[in-house]
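Regression test case RT-17, inverse folding.

Input:
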């Protein structure tokens, strides 16, 4: 059976968060495409996204009567297949974060574009907002990711297999979670994508901040036949996942001498492992009841004793498939009940480019100007989303093997850190506006082709180029190089000296 965990509740006070107070630690509420900060009806401040993204075009949507001010603006990105456009957000590398982007294309034609979501090199999900757009609604996606460094990158990927237009975004939340929240998941190997988060028996609005201190959305699940409201409050500070106390104020309660049967979550699921958390509290003061919980045909928990203080049970890797039924069966006089639940899909954390190569590319990037706007996020991953001009090898270590930045209108200088990309076989910065000197590349023992022609490079030709035994193509013509040709290059039978500082391999 899948592993199952329980957490009893101590009567500790969960202090409310005043409206307008910002989230703890490194947390972000970004109003994408906005020029100025806005404040929503809950008193939360949303900042413009401009400082965190270098691509895309901001604009206002011509839609009247929007209750959420963050839906009034949009940032749209170009249709550049294979490119990922990223937000870079400073984070605490020892924490995990709730990530929730919001998409609202408006209600007009054409059909909204579909695209991929990527976090720190990990493919998350494909986004398709067409159904919500036809209904005039916004689309929310939510996942929990670990920080993998001092910056988290949230990216929108242009997938050539989906649509022929670029991605867009209206709002982005990245909220630091408490260490106890979802801490039974192994975030070294997995991230969590939200399937459903439900407040059973509720007929009101979505439960969120300030009731939920992390602004998680608890969707109502009305059922007039079984819904009951409690007359007391459950405190929840010692629940590991820190659910808002108010989700315990409504419940679905079975009829006497009958089980409580729910189809939940309300959508069919792929056959896979899921994180399932269920929350219970007796609706009567100083009372308790005992029941079993089955999910489909498997026992989730047996003889669960629930009091008005509350209880939670959760499994970190529970196998689900298709439509799911939750069956709660009484083992005492009082009928069984349920107050709230969460289901997450688990998906693998993707690999990253080897640190040495990633740091070298960041240094190269800082020494250049007019670089492509997708040079952000992991340089190689996920598969199919390498930086423009970068080719990688996905072996035991993910390495950069080729740089082809020809004719990109790049200026600046060549960083010496390029020599740390020791798996390189090809380098081309041909036909740009580079200035400065050619760095020492003798550590590039696999380099076969070096094309630096048609730039503004100056200084001398490094003698160390002649020590690279694998080098067969060296194009340096049409630069401002001076001095003598290094003798070890002239003696290399693999090269032919041509006029104008032109070197080329012999056919």
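Golden output:
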């Amino acid at each position: 059976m899948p592993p199952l965990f329980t957490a009893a509740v101590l009567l500790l006070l969960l202090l409310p968060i005043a409206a307008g107070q910002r989230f703890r630690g490194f947390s972000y509420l970004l109003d994408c495409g906005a020029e100025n900060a806005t404040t929503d009806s809950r008193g939360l401040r949303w900042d413009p996204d401009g400082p965190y993204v270098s691509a895309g075009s901001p604009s206002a949507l011509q839609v009247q009567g929007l209750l959420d001010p963050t839906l009034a603006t949009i940032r749209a990105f170009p249709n550049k297949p294979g490119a990922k456009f990223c937000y870079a957000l400073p984070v605490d590398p020892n924490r995990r974060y709730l990530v929730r982007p919001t998409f609202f294309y408006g209600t007009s034609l054409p059909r909204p574009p579909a695209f991929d979501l990527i976090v720190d090199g990990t493919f998350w999900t494909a986004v398709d907002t067409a159904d919500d757009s036809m209904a005039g609604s916004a689309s929310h996606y939510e996942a929990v990711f670990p920080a993998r460094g001092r910056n988290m990158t949230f990216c929108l990927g242009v997938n050539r297999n989906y649509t022929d237009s670029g991605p867009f975004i209206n709002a982005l939340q990245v909220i630091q979670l408490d260490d106890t929240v979802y801490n039974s998941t192994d975030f070294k190997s997995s991230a969590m994508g939200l399937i459903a988060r439900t407040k059973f028996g509720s007929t009101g609005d979505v439960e969120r901040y300030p009731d939920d201190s992390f602004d998680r959305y608890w969707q109502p699940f009305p059922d007039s036949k079984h819904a009951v409201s409690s007359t007391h409050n459950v405190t929840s500070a010692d629940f590991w996942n820190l659910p808002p106390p108010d989700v315990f104020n409504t419940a679905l309660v079975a009829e006497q001498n009958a089980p409580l049967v729910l189809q939940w979550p309300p959508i069919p699921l792929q056959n896979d492992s899921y994180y399932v958390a269920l929350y219970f509290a007796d609706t009567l003061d100083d009372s308790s009841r005992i029941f079993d919980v089955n999910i489909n045909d498997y026992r989730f928990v047996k003889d669960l004793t629930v009091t008005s203080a509350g209880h939670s049970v959760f499994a970190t890797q529970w196998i689900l498939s298709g439509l799911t039924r939750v069956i709660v069966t009484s083992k005492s006089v009082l009928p069984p009940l349920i107050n709230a639940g969460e289901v997450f899909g688990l998906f693998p954390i993707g690999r990253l480019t080897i640190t040495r190569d990633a740091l070298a590319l960041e240094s190269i990037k800082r020494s250049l100007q007019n670089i492509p706007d997708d040079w952000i996020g992991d340089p190689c991953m996920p598969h199919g989303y390498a930086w423009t001009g970068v080719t990688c090898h996905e072996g035991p270590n993910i390495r950069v093997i080729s740089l082809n930045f020809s004719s990109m209108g790049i200026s600046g200088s060549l960083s010496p850190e390029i020599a740390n990309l020791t798996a390189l076989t090809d380098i081309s910065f041909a036909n740009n506006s580079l200035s400065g000197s050619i760095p020492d590349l003798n550590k590039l023992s696999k380099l076969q082709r070096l094309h630096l022609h048609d730039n503004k490079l100056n200084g001398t030709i490094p003698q160390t180029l002649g020590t690279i035994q694998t080098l067969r193509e060296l194009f340096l013509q049409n630069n401002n190089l001076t001095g003598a040709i290094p003798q070890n290059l002239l003696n290399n039978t693999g090269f032919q000296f041509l006029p104008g500082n032109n070197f080329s391999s012999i056919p």
